[in-house]
Amino acid sequence: MAHLKRTLSLGSVVLFGIAYMTPIIVLGTFGILAQSTEGHVPAAYLIALVAMLFTAISYGRMAAAFPVAGSAYTYVRKSINPKLGFIAGWVVLLDYLFLPMAIWLIGAAYLGSAFPAIPQAVWVLAFIGITTAINIIGLRLANTVNAALMLVQFLVLGAFVVLSIHYVGGDSSQPLFDLSPFTGGEVHWPLLMSGAAIACYSFLGFDAVSTLTEETKDAQRTIPKAILLVTLLGGLVFVVASYWVQRAHPSMAFSNIDSAAYEIARNIGGDLFVSMFLIGLIVGQFTSGLSAQASASRLLFAMGRDGVLPKAFFGRLSERFGTPVYSLILCGVVALLALKLDVTTSTSFINFGAFMAFSLVNLSVIFHYYLQASRRGPRETLLFLVCPGIGLLADLYLMASLDHLAVVLGLSWLSLGVIYLAKLTGGFRTQPPEMSFNEAEA
After folding, report:
1. TM spans, by residue (predicted)?
2. What is the pTM of this model?
3. Cα(22)–Cα(202) distance, integer angstroms
């Protein structure tokens, strides 16, 4: 029976999750959020952080209950129903399988703008090839690469924030600190929620941490801690960074909202800093793609090992490297779609899958602890019913705040999953294939 080796510590897992989040993405999406929230970007991130914390707590509880690979797919399958577990795995593939493609496409788009003589397809293929090779060799190498590149990314992001503070401090007509990015002007709740739904895209790394359960030392304690730390640290970075960038550029007017941070970077730091910013953004996209592809391959491996997906292909590990090579290569092949898609199309339905998976994980906490284990004392009711219930409602509300195209594409993907499940189970008459995990063998 194939099992992954336990080599990762708390620090390594937290680094993985933060790298997946790509903290510098707060700058890459600033223009879109500034317009959608009418100048209240940090407020949107704060709302997203509160909503994601409830879901992060639920992920931690389920990771402690089921310390095996598979994330939402495993939790829902084991706590509620195998068929619904398959659906959870199917919708989360929107996140895991297509997110690397979107990440590499964004990075290639920025490089294409900086070096117009080189076709964008060259950059896409370079991202796919280098990242796939590193992930095939194994997470130890990936972790080493992430550590070096994360440092570059944080230095650039830190410089952006420091220059923003210096720029604001140089304007004697306004105080250094005020609450205008949170409460200034007219605050429209529907716009804030729409912005928070977009901002949640930046938090997707916390749930990816749970896919590394079988490769983490003392996973029942380490993974829940890592999930909360990744969510809190990432949220803190997003709120603080967006606050100072919003203060440095309170206007919602940009020449191009997709490259708004370029305008701000040039305004606060000049042409040299614009080049530094580009380097940091590309480094961020690379580290995020590295983590995203690794997570996607682990989810496919878990589903393949159970026979829900073809076991001969998805459930195999490389004898030499101990990694799911076929799944990693498939992720690279899927990413080739970036050669034909634009950023908007490739990312529009990712959040639908994430919110659906988040909702099901919150529901699985209620089923596993409150209903099945009958843990219903006053404190346990708060922990296992009220908190996941709040997380569930928040995720559904955010999902409803997505744009129409995202909902349509997400529902289309969900329909395909239901059709495949019907075929797999003979018209829903049998359960999807399952496999017992023996942690003693892990």
Report:
1. 12-33, 45-75, 87-111, 117-138, 145-167, 187-206, 226-245, 272-301, 321-343, 349-370, 382-399, 405-422
2. 0.80
3. 7
Express each pLDDT in 291-344 by its tens digit. Answer: 778 878 877 887 788 777 888 888 888 877 788 888 899 999 988 888 887 666
CATH of domain 10-427: 1.20.1740.10
Domain coordinates of the chain in residue numbers? 10-427
